[in-house]
Design brief:
Elements lengths: L2 H9 L11 H7 L11 H14 L3 E6 L6 E3 L2 H7 L8 H13 L5 E8 L5 E6 L5 E5 L4 E5 L2 E4 L4 E4 L14 H23 L6 E5 L9 H13 L14 E5 L10 H16 L13 H27 L5 E6 L8 H13 L5 H7 L34 H6 L1
Antiparallel strand pairs: 1-2, 1-11, 3-4, 3-8, 5-6, 6-7, 9-10
Helix pairs in contact: 3-5, 3-8, 6-8
Length: 399
């Protein structure tokens, strides 16, 4: 029962001001309607960009080492990076986690790990947010799925933007974007109504009101058909000068209503709250540095939520962890990659085959050997250079 239904039922028992039952009161007091975040095209575009980029990164299984961390390739790494879910590709699986966490799940995304009899991961099953309920108790919480309770350790719970009172539960950005979504929805409705409004004629025809034909609608249609409608495109109109006068108008535009500036400002605000560059929403021009900063400050932190939950719930060894590889996301030109890789090859920090892998090229057998300039020598051999010894090369020849 809405507000006005309650008032009408109450009016029978108690006297009430009649204004509250009018249409004007409804338009003044009631909100036009709830706008879901996932139905807003601007927010949907931002979330799509984030989910699409995160799901494009390769998932590495890494192991801590004394001289650095090493990538491990085994069945476990293949399971997470190739086929985590039996009926979805890995990209769609990660995309679903991110988009659900940011939108439909209101900051939460639940995945149920199916374990076989040997204790190995058999499947990772995405759970629809509509059948999930997070219940607070002394554990500190349980996850109810279709009426069945699971402890927080039994499921993968990806949470974004933790709530203040329940830090284990994500809250997304529903509150921050609510007003902006309503404003953009109203702007879209106004623009649509403005563009389809019939009260925007570009031509006004003045007709002598004393003309008998002008007195009726059929007569007015007859005048239009006689003098105007039958004319071909581009053909001049021939009309009586003393009876009909034609004026042209410049109709009111959206620019005059300042809707364009308002929508632009709202799009910039939405982009800033979500953390994506405004040019994703058609505001401004592409900026390489801004895009790379977006990868560092928005993509990687959200990816870390997934990395840490996978590591915490799926790995037993304290030396192993999952990691997304973000290098492919950065906006680098081929020239920059060749230049940076070439310098590392000169320093013997990488082989030429590793450089070819950077560039997406297949390895070659003759590119595995490390190359270096002759004056690149170890630190402890600096004093053994012939040019620093007495006699230099002559001493070497005498020996």
């Amino acid at each position: 029962m809405n507000f006005f239904q309650k008032l009408k039922s109450k009016a029978r028992a108690e006297p009430i001001h009649p204004w509250f039952l009018t249409t004007d009161a409804y338009d003044t007091l009631c909100i036009s309607g709830y706008q879901r975040l996932d139905t807003n095209p601007e927010i949907r575009t931002c979330v799509h960009k984030i989910a699409n980029l995160i799901s494009s990164m390769t998932i590495y299984l890494m192991e801590n080492g004394e001289k650095g961390d090493n990538r491990i390739k085994n069945e476990l790494s293949r399971k997470l990076d190739v086929n985590p879910c039996s009926y979805m590709t890995r990209k769609n699986f990660i995309y679903w986690i991110v988009s659900t966490m940011l939108l439909e799940g209101k900051g939460n995304s639940i995945v149920f790990p199916k374990i076989d009899s040997a204790g190995l991961i058999d499947d990772l099953i995405p759970i629809q947010p509509g059948v999930v309920n997070i219940l607070v108790n002394d554990k500190p919480y349980t996850v109810n799925i279709n009426g069945k309770d699971y402890t927080n350790d039994d499921v993968l719970h990806f949470a974004y933007n933790p709530a203040s009172n329940e830090p284990w539960k994500g809250k997304g950005f529903t509150v921050e974007l609510k007003d902006l979504v309503e404003t953009l929805a109203q702007a879209t409705k106004t623009k649509k109504g403005f563009m389809s409004d019939k009260w925007k004629p570009s031509v006004i025809i003045s007709v002598d009101a004393m003309t008998d034909e002008f007195a009726s609608e059929d007569g007015r249609e007859k005048i239009l058909k006689r003098y105007i409608s039958d004319s071909q495109a581009g053909k001049p109109w021939v009309i009586p000068a003393d009876m009909i006068k034609v004026d042209t108008l410049k109709p009111l535009s959206l620019q005059d209503l300042a809707i364009t500036d308002t929508v632009k400002l709202d799009k910039q605000t939405i982009a800033g709250l979500i953390g994506v560059p405004a040019f994703f929403l058609g505001v401004g021009e592409f900026n390489k540095d801004e895009y790379n900063n977006f990868v560092d400050t928005t993509i990687l932190p959200i990816a870390q939520v997934i990395e840490q939950e996978l590591t915490k719930k799926l790995l037993y060894s304290p030396n192993l962890y999952f990691k997304f590889n973000p290098r492919s996301l950065y906006n680098y030109s081929l020239t920059e990659m060749v230049g940076a890789g070439g310098e590392m090859v000169k320093l013997m920090a990488m082989s030429r085959n590793e450089l070819r892998n950077w560039l997406g090229m297949s390895p070659r057998e003759d590119m595995e050997e490390l190359l270096a300039l002759e004056n690149y020598i170890p630190q402890d051999k600096l004093g053994d250079q012939l040019k620093l010894l007495q006699g230099g090369d002559n001493n070497a020849k005498d020996e």
